[in-house]
Write a structure and sequence with these properties.
single chain, 452 residues, mainly beta, Immunoglobulin-like, five-stranded antiparallel β-sheet, 28 strands, 38% strand
Length: 452
């Protein structure tokens, strides 16, 4: 039995652990002010991040803080209400920020607490980049600036729905990862999701997401949490969207920017997976609302209603939390969460099951970063951005199956003739900034007999 003193020491140790004193919590916050004077001004905000202002006309005090929200991302947060501040120039050192030869530096401004989109005046950012640094000139001070390290090369195996599990994760990668999109594969209908029966069942088509369908290409203005194909009654979009499926959206419409299905890397049971599906259906049925994706942690609990507000990544994270699983540790999504942070903590689907004589066939491709002129629009304030392009740079290193090279991807095909466990090894590669980058992925195919 613990004595009162030892119990007190234990409680203090737990509190210190939670507060980050033992290193369990990696984010740190730095608070200070920039005191501008007339003329030229230059400050070092943190290692690798400098900010300068030219032709300042009067004294201005700019409060700011730096939050290291993960090992790969820091956030420079300026307070709203500093509109009088002149447009800054950020000088970002790749070496000081830890950018490796196979990584890119993502710089993404966010304009206010709830939106990426400027509502009043024109907002632009001009980029100058070389191998050593990235310089960004802004026409006005952003509300905050995300600075992240991302991989230059990603793998993408487009597995058919029959090979996925309830709760597998789906990501669409946009320029600079913003806007990007998160969704969750379900594989069950409403009736099944509401029970603990038929665990492991898979209808091969159903997924859930939070999304604004005004920008999906259809003449609709619905914004919220949806399940496709839809089988929830009394929604106006049912007649148009009951044919939208995992295959039609992810394997076709969004194929060139699809990460391929991903998986939670930790322990997760079939019962946990069912809880994830159930949460998505219950949230959609309550008429949950969509957020642009900057509800900080991806979720707002709206008062006096069950219709809470979710970003696309927020509803996926909450679905996993409902099963007692966190994709992103709670101490890292308390202040900010986006698809990139969540994706970075997942893995490509490592294994599938097939039967003797059944064809295994799917698209597979590299996603290679390219520095691209994008212009200025409602989603892009910068003239350039990193865009991950689908390429056919894939090599099959195992004797099983074959690869057919297409224009921007490959098709893997194999019909297993004997039972067993077969590791299929793929090499993904490409030329980035004059150097070859590569990744390897092993997909284990468990081949069973027809009667198994």
């Amino acid at each position: 039995m613990l004595t009162r003193i030892s119990f007190t020491v234990l409680i203090i140790s737990i509190i210190l652990s939670i507060s980050g004193c033992t290193g369990l919590i990696r984010f740190e916050t730095e608070h200070t002010h920039l005191e501008l004077i007339p003329g030229e001004n230059c400050f070092e905000l943190t290692r690798g991040v400098k900010i300068s202002f030219s032709n300042v006309q009067k004294e201005v005090s700019i409060p700011y803080e730096i939050e290291r929200i993960s090992e790969r991302t820091l956030l420079v947060l300026f307070r709203e209400g500093t509109a009088s501040a002149p447009g800054p120039i950020f000088h970002l050192s790749h070496e000081a920020l830890g950018i490796e030869a196979d990584q890119v530096l993502i710089v993404q401004p966010i304009l206010n607490q709830t939106s990426y989109v400027p509502t009043e005046e024109r907002y632009e950012a001009q980029f100058i980049k070389d191998s050593l640094s990235t310089v960004v000139r802004f026409t006005k001070l952003p509300y905050c600036l995300l600075i992240s390290r991302a991989d230059a090369l990603y793998t993408a195996q487009h597995l058919p729905g029959k090979f996925l599990l309830e709760g597998d994760l789906l990501y669409h990668i946009g320029p600079n990862w913003i806007p990007s999109h998160s969704a969750v594969y379900l594989g069950v209908d409403y009736e099944t999701a509401m029970t603990d029966e038929k665990l492991g069942f898979n209808n091969e088509v159903t997924f859930g997401e939070s999304y604004p369908f005004l920008s999906h290409g259809y003449n609709l203005v619905e914004e919220g949490v949806f399940i496709f194909p839809n089988d929830i009654e009394n929604h106006s979009y049912v007649n148009l969207f009951n044919y939208d499926t995992y295959e039609s959206r992810w394997l076709r419409y969004w194929a060139t920017s699809f990460s391929g299905a991903r998986r939670f890397p930790g322990e997760i049971s079939p019962q946990d997976r069912r809880k994830i599906s159930r949460f998505m259906y219950e949230t959609a049925e309550k008429g949950a609302l969509w957020s642009v994706g900057f509800a900080w942690s991806g979720f707002w609990d709206l008062p006096f209603t069950d219709r809470d507000l979710y970003s696309c990544v927020g509803v996926v994270e909450k679905a996993y939390e409902s099963a007692g699983r966190n994709i992103v540790p709670f101490w890292e999504d308390m202040f900010y969460l986006n698809s990139f942070e969540q994706f970075s903590r997942t893995i490509p689907v490592p294994e599938i099951t097939s039967m003797v004589g059944d064809k295994v066939e799917f698209r597979i491709n590299s996603l290679l970063a390219e520095w691209t002129y994008v212009g200025f629009d409602k989603w892009s304030f910068g003239d350039h951005a990193w865009i991950w392009k689908s390429e056919s740079n894939v090599e099959l290193l195992s004797p099983q199956g074959s690869l057919e090279v297409k224009n921007d991807h490959c098709i893997f095909t194999w019909t297993p003739l004997e039972t067993g466990d077969y590791p299929i090894i793929f090499r993904f590669f490409g030329e980035f900034e004059g150097k070859e980058v590569e990744k390897y992925h092993t997909l284990t195919v468990h081949v069973t007999g027809k009667d198994s």
